[in-house]
Structure formats: structure tokens, C-alpha cells
Amino acid sequence: MQIARVIGMVTSTVKVPDLKGVTLLVIQPVNTLYESLGTPIVAADRFGAGVGEYVFYSTSKEGAMNLPIPTACADAGIAGIIDSIAIVKES
Amino acid sequence: MQIARVIGMVTSTVKVPDLKGVTLLVIQPVNTLYESLGTPIVAADRFGAGVGEYVFYSTSKEGAMNLPIPTACADAGIAGIIDSIAIVKES
Amino acid sequence: MQIARVIGMVTSTVKVPDLKGVTLLVIQPVNTLYESLGTPIVAADRFGAGVGEYVFYSTSKEGAMNLPIPTACADAGIAGIIDSIAIVKES
Amino acid sequence: MQIARVIGMVTSTVKVPDLKGVTLLVIQPVNTLYESLGTPIVAADRFGAGVGEYVFYSTSKEGAMNLPIPTACADAGIAGIIDSIAIVKES
Amino acid sequence: MQIARVIGMVTSTVKVPDLKGVTLLVIQPVNTLYESLGTPIVAADRFGAGVGEYVFYSTSKEGAMNLPIPTACADAGIAGIIDSIAIVKES
Predict the structure, then answer these.
(1) ipTM of the predicted structure?
(2) D51, pLDDT greater than 80
(3) Which of A91, C16, D45, E12 would disulfide-bridge D78, Cβ 3.0–4.6 Å?
């Protein structure tokens, strides 16, 4: 799973029926220092994650596993909202 | 899921039977500023998306989930046509 | 799905039984201008695609969906032979 | 599968129910010389791998196969803890 | 599928039970000129491929399809040992 910041959303009237009522967030992948990495993607959300929040998300088939219809034509989904990331200093 | 602009189509007589009658669009992945990113791919379409329209698409197994035969040998499919992308300014 | 040119083939005596009798092509991914992109891969073929022909192929689980044994240990397969690619000029 | 060093962990209260009680490690992919490669990811762990340990992990659907609920919305999981990597000098 | 040279192996005592008794090779992806490309990965092997041999391998779910337990938490597996690669000169 990767870490991302929620930065916006996509609206779509014409889409696969399995995604009706599912929020489509635009998320910016980030590293563990919360720095942006690469290009934003569109991910399905069930948690009501808000803009500015950090989430971890899954891609491929697992990305849709938390949707009402897990076989939906969706390849990225929010798996959870991040409370904190602890990077442990190695001694 | 990623965002792309429809830029053309592929015609193929000899192909897997599961893709007969399925439109094969050529789509150019873009970022949230609608700037081209990387190489166009071929994606199956059920929505009649036209050249110049922006779509979001899924890859891997999910890419075929909206096809008449979801187990088709296809790894990219249009999930919806984009009305708008809202990138929210963080305060 | 991506576009590629057939450039050769692989012979293998010791391989997974599910791939016995399946042609293993070496294909060079290309862009829509038929320019080479990145590294050739090995893809299973059922269509008799010849060297110099352009194909579109699927990867991951879908790559094997057109094989005699769709659960074969193969992650790339030819989905069809390309007749033409039309890139539409946007007005 | 790829090799990584465990560098930290993520805490998340709001997440998919299938991941409740599953440790979410932050791991840094490395090469066979144990040098860091690219960006850390979040991976589910069942082995109690500690910070500084080297693991090998799977992504995509296989990443969740060792979880209590293998269909969880998780696309990366620790497959094992590495005792040693032997790179054989070719003569 | 991609081509790789076998360069070593990984030993792991603590690992997913489905991988017990499965050889874990370290393989270096190569191009069709047998030049190294990118980072070595860990792949499950059932063929006894030796160091210095060239193999073709599958990733994602297909990578585990030749294992005793195909649902193992493994995302890369050897699909066969390469006898030869023929790149055909186009006239």
C-alpha cells in the first residue's frame, strides 16, 4: 500500500454502474516525509476522507475490495486514514 | 484509476473472441492539469467516449470488469467519462 | 493494453506444463508512432502473429485468459493483431 | 517478490475492517546490497518483523494472501523474514 | 513475462507456510541482449534453475500458479528455463 494526500475529487455522470454513489477522490501519492511523488490518481473512497488528510490506499484488484460491489471496474481504493507514521531511528 | 484523454482507436480483425464488438480506444494518460504523461495505451470502452473527452480508467483485472465478458483478455478499460476534476486549495 | 511489434521468439524445453505448445513471442513495446519503448517482453500467442507485425497485448492475469489453460503461469499474452491505429486530430 | 528493510509503522483508526488487528509496517525496498531503492511502502505483517530486519514481500492480490482475511483491501504483505541473501559469483 | 539470469538465492526460516520447501531464487532481469536491467527480485522456482541460467518469469498472481499451493503469498515465479532467444532481423 502507498501513502497519499487527498487533494480533490472527480465528478462523473457516465460511469460503470458499480461505482454509482462511490466517492472518487483525487489523491497525491507522497513519501514518508509527506512529500509529493509522481502523479495524482483517482481512488474510490468509503471513509469520507477529506482534502488534506493522509490515507493509505491499495491498487489492482484489492483497491476495490472495500466497495459495495467488490468486482467493480476500479483499481484503486482508500484502505484507511492515517493517524501517524512512525519511522524508527535505527541504532 | 488514472485520467486520460481519448485520442484515437485501434482496429483489429484477428483478436480474442471476447473482445468482438468492443471498442478499442487509444487513450493518452494525463495529470490533473490535463497534461500528457507517458505513452498512450489501448483501453476497452463501453461508454462511447469520443476523441477529446477525458475519462478515468482501470487497469489489470478490473479493466475488463465492465465488458460483456469480464474475463476477456483485456487489462485496461474505461470506468467513466469525467465531468470535472476539482483540486481543492488547502488553506 | 499496450502496442508492440513482434521481434522474435523464445524456445524453452523446461517450462510450466500449462505452456506446452504455446508460442512464446518476444515483443517490443512501441508507442502510437511505432517507436520502440523500453524493453522487449515475452508474451504467449495464439494467433500466429509473425515477426514485424504489430499486436496489442494484455499483462497480469488477463494476459493468460486466451490460453488453453487460462490459469497458466503466464502474465503477458497477445490479445489481437493490429490492422491500424487511428490518432484523431483534435480541432 | 522484493526485498525491503522494516523502517517503521503506520497507525490508523479509520480503516477497512479486514485490516483490524493487522500490523501495518513501513518498509523501504532495497537491492541485494541492502541499498535503499525508491519510496517506502506500507505492508501488512503477520510475522512480527522488527525495525531493521530484512523481509521479502509480495504485492498485488498475493500481498494479502497471508492475512486473516485474504480478500482484505491490502496490496502488499510480508512473505517472510530474510536470514541471508547469497549472490553466487559466476565463474 | 520477462527474462532474467539466476544470480543467487534467499534463505528464510520465518515465512508464509505456503512457501515451505519452495526455492527462492534471486534473479536479475535482463534484456534480449542479456544485459542487466534494474533491480534483482526474489522468485519462487520449481525447476531447479541454477546460477547463470536464463529463465522467463511471471509476476503478480500468475507468478505463484506453478507452486504446490497456487494461492501462496508469492508474486513472482519462474515459468521456464530459456534454451534460446531468437531475435529475427526484419527485412
Answers:
(1) 0.86
(2) yes
(3) D45
